[in-house]
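Notes taken during the Thursday session

The instructor put the following on the board and asked us to keep it in front of us for the whole hour. The protein is Diaminopimelate decarboxylase. We were told not to look anything up and to reason only from what is written here. First, the residues (428 in total):
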Amino acid sequence: MHSFEYKNGSLHCEDVNLQDIAEQYGTPAYVYSANTILDHYRRLDAALAEIDHCVEYAVKANSNLSVLRLLAEEGSGFDIVSGGELFRVIKAGGDPKKCTFAGVGKTRAEIEYALEQGIYSFNVESEEEAAFINVVAGEMGKVAPIAFRVNPNVDAKTHKYISTGKSENKFGVDFAYIEAAYERASQLENVKLIGLQMHIGSQLTSVSPFIEAVEKVSPLAAKLKATYGIEFFSIGGGVGIVYDPALESAKPEWWAAQEEEQRPLTIEEYAAGVLPKLKELGLKILLEPGRYIVGNAGVMLTQCLYEKKGSAKTFKVVDAGMNDLIRPALYEGHHEIVPVAQPAGDDNIKMDVVGPICETGDFFMQNAELPNFPVGSVIALLSSGAYGFTMASNYNTRPMPVEIMVDGDQAKVIRKRQSLDDLIAAEL
Ligand SMILES: Cc1ncc(COP(=O)(O)O)c(C=O)c1O
Ligand SMILES: N[C@@H](CCCC[NH3+])C(=O)O
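Then, after some discussion, the predicted structure tokens were revealed:
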């Protein structure tokens, strides 16, 4: 679905002109398309329709209450990684009984809170954690539903910082030790083994690592079902999106030539790849997509403050920085840049698009051939709906940006721009 398109010479989100948004609410600003989020959720849900399944949206990708509410109303479950995320889900009207709790370092307070709220499953990442949950649950007179996260030692072929399924990654229980972990946990009085989980990494652009992981782990899932009566197998999230031109009408010529290789992993291809093996299991299949649901549903708007010509380069300095969108600095992430006012001709120049932060790594693009957008104009960084706002910080004492949700021709502020007073409110 193309939620961001040029209409009458200006970039729109659904039927709302992004120039108007920038003028009314200022920049930097995150803008999300509600209908794109829903479309992605429904497409994934439909692709898995032939098996018993549940989508557990990965809250970390975009945890705005309005986004969570939208998905909760669709019936989504939620994959959380902290007590804070569970708190958000509940505030947004989500059902704790549809929540799974991942993460290698759950604290006592988080475990107690999740037990009080009655979450569906703790996705346990070590035997030590299982033993601790057993103690906490016992003290509370409860039985904790748990699944182990298995680390299948499969190469997800993604950026090394977001690969999670290799033995050298900190996540999950080593494939070699997993059966022993279930055997020992089955002796614990205050936990109940109800599932098995894995997640091999994020931003996967090919289906083969998913297939490899499912084929490797399915026999284990079948065995655990037979031995301990587990009811679910979660295959995690990780479906990648296209970060290169997502915007059909803004695709440069070179895109067409490369389109074949850079084709996104479609959700239908993903489902066709993993379904055959999963169908045989007769288990409830859980999915934990984050980026696929929200990534292409959001942009970040920023205004050009200065153009600075050096002997080596031309720098366009914009009013958003790596504190607002850290993906380029952290993972060499690519977010396509398009001017909100549609460029009339072909006046591309080579430039670095940089932010105001005192860090050399504070850039959105380097040596990029981009339309020569003028000072004062607004540009959009595409595909910023996932891991954009949620990874933003107050570095350099910069207030957090505003977030806006568009639905048809309506735009609504779903998080106010932070004020400096709010920013320092908790400090003594
Ligand atoms: C356990 C777990 N589940 C789901 C996700 C969501 O990943 P993605 O946004 O790539 O779908 C992550 C993040 O990589 C994760 O760590
Ligand atoms: N934050 C990463 C993805 C990590 C997902 C969490 N395991 C990104 O922006 O691409």
